[in-house]
Amino acid sequence: MSECFELILTCPKGLELLLAEEAAGLGLEQPKSQVAAITGRGTLEAAYRLCLWSRLANRVLLVLARFPVASADDLYRQVHALDWAEHLDSCGTLAVEFTGRGAGIDNTHFGALKVKDAIVDRLRTTSGQRPGVDRQDPDLRIHLHLEPGQPCLSLDLSGHSLHQRGYRLQQGAAPLKENLAAAILLRAGWPRIAAEGGALADPMCGAGTLLIEAGLMAADVAPNLKRGRWGFTGWLGHIPALWQRLVEEAMARAEAGLARPPLWLRGYEADPRLIQPARNNIERAGLEHWIRVYQGELSSFAPHPDRGQHGLVVCNPPYGERLGDEASLLYLYQHLGERLRQHCQGWEAAIFTGSPELCRRMGLRSHKQYAFWNGALACRLLLFRVTPERFVLDTPCTSDNQEYKERRQPLEPVPARLTEGGQMFANRLRKNARQLDKWARNRGVSCYRLYDADMPEYALAIDRYQDWIHVQEYAAPRSVDPEKAMGRLLDALAAIPVALEISPENIVVKRRERQSGTRQYERQAHEGHFIEVQEGKARLLVNLTDYLDTGLFLDHRPLRLQLFQEARSKRFLNLFCYTATATLQAALGGAWQTTSVDLSKTYLDWARRNLALNGLSERHRLVQADVLAWLGQDMELYDLIFIDPPTFSNSKRMTGVFDVQRDHPQLIDLAMARLAPGGVLYFSNNFRRFVLDVGLVQRYRVEDITAQSIDEDFRRSGMIHRAWRLQAREKSASAGRD
């Protein structure tokens, strides 16, 4: 029992120093850190304690041998030479995990097979009995790491990874592993706060992992006390009496810890679907008398411990791996900072995120940061002291600043200070808004573009939809540093509510990239929230969240209003109709009948709702079809035609691929064949490098009306689209005599 073994403890990358400190306290001697692991020496009792009590390790490996190898056959001979009868019965089961490459072994499956064969062949009896393979719950789990020139052969004492405590059978969409949650709490100083009787609150608790790990620490409960099976359970070297003594000791400590008055541990979660799973996990961990979880939005977060004590706010807010994902979360982080400043003064806070740039927008200065890895994603833990001197405000936060004290009575939302770039952007946006708001009121326009990459370093399109702001970020070129691009984006997003005096809750952020095919029409979300807006006499439904485009192309407003003026008593055709906003204007302008053609059922349903909203249903036909194929079959004539095709489309419902530059001559020829005598066709598209086919100019009367089709709100962005008015050429008198 006093024999010392070489032990290896694996862990997530970034936890090595913490694990070395913890392991030393549990009996590991001479701990040394490696990447995602530590090594040291310890007795079997120390190894058992590490299995039972380590909150940070993934596995506890007991090294059986290190030996040099030059080939796969050499590896087989070295493993075969060990006395495996000391470790496994010939009728038992085993599993082999093999990592690394070298000595002619480039395939881990092949390496594992060699090790398995060597063990099985050594244990095969004269009667032919031999161990079997059980990858899930073997009696012996062997690990071989092929280091350059010298493999390390180990026995896995833990079995399944130690982060699997057994209490979390239900979890949210992006759960933290239990040992990573424990590391966050240790770095945040929770053991110290708990020893002082402090409280803990998680405003976005999900399935409760941080809360449970905090409760286990505070109640002195061994994290793996409830585990039923271990990697050493079927090991012949296992000493049950020693293990049982350690378990009984841990049970006594847990009983004593849970008998103490419970600390104030509270979690809040906006998603009602996660409340019961969190409570179930807490109950399985035996902490139902310590932890309470409630449904609540971040906007209402305000911890009020029973005894009025301060404590720790800890959370793992959502963070996006892509630039566009992060942008949409800016206001959530700003709101989190606001709730901390308003309701958690005197507390400490720990925010774990993959987007530290977002944390820097919370209006608080962190006093310490730690690097972690959440799987393959680099993350940071930012620690805060929520005191006025740590607030990032426009007014200095000194204790003798009377203006500051008066301004804090009563507590009001405190905005984070804009950066120099953010202030510059806010000034430009205010200037645009002053000019365009007045123009829009005079014209009766409620939806218009406020900003379109006016400042190249802030590449956004910002549109007003009545009381809502819709923001699209143009993806930065690859030559731009992603971190700088993100910083500028967040500067701009922070400035928008300030400049436009609008609630962040009424701001929707999306990312626009070059799209191929119909990706611009793909669903981005599934909120299904429509708002009603006005354009002239038309009432329109727009959706700001679910798709990249909103259902209303603002730049075509003058063309739609032109159709309203010209449509009276005419037969109107709208090709590639999208949500039929042009059709609405024609119908309200008095069109005798309308036909709208599009391939998308989703957008035709949207069009149907737009028509119904305006009391229009009869004589207004919606057709789901490939436009080119339909034009080849339709024989009706129309007095007024509007075509606004996509730049490119390869929908599965089409027989081929549509390319506006290549296919527009055929499209316009087919449409002109459907134009009644004296009729007018309007053609427009948004392809910046578009060139109208010369043959069309020769065949038809063509007028470029781009300048008059662009309204005041789009003049700053240049040619947002190109537009033409086409009519059939009149036959000359001589041609008639011929």
- Major pleated sheet: 8 strands, mixed
What is the assigned CATH homologous superfamily of the domain at 531-737?
Vaccinia Virus protein VP39
Gross morphology is: elongated
Between the first and last Cα atoms, what is the distance in angstroms?
116 Å
Number of helices, where a helix is a run of at least 4 consecutive DSSP H or I residues: 22
Report the average pLDDT across residues: 88
Give the CATH architecture of the domain at 531-737. 3-Layer(aba) Sandwich
Biggest sheet, spatial arrangement of strands: 2-3-1-4-8-7-5-6
Notes on the protein architecture:
The chain is an alpha/beta fold and 738 residues long. Among the domains are: 178-211 and 262-407, Vaccinia Virus protein VP39 (Rossmann fold), CATH 3.40.50.150; 420-513, 2-Layer Sandwich (Transcription Regulator spoIIAA), CATH 3.30.750.80; 531-737, Vaccinia Virus protein VP39 (Rossmann fold), CATH 3.40.50. 32% of the residues lie in helices and 24% in strands. Strands 2-3-1-4-8-7-5-6 form an eight-stranded mixed β-sheet. Strands 11-10-9-12-13-15-14 form a seven-stranded mixed β-sheet. Strands 24-23-22-25-28-30-29 form a seven-stranded mixed β-sheet, sandwiched between helices. Helix 19 packs parallel to helix 20.
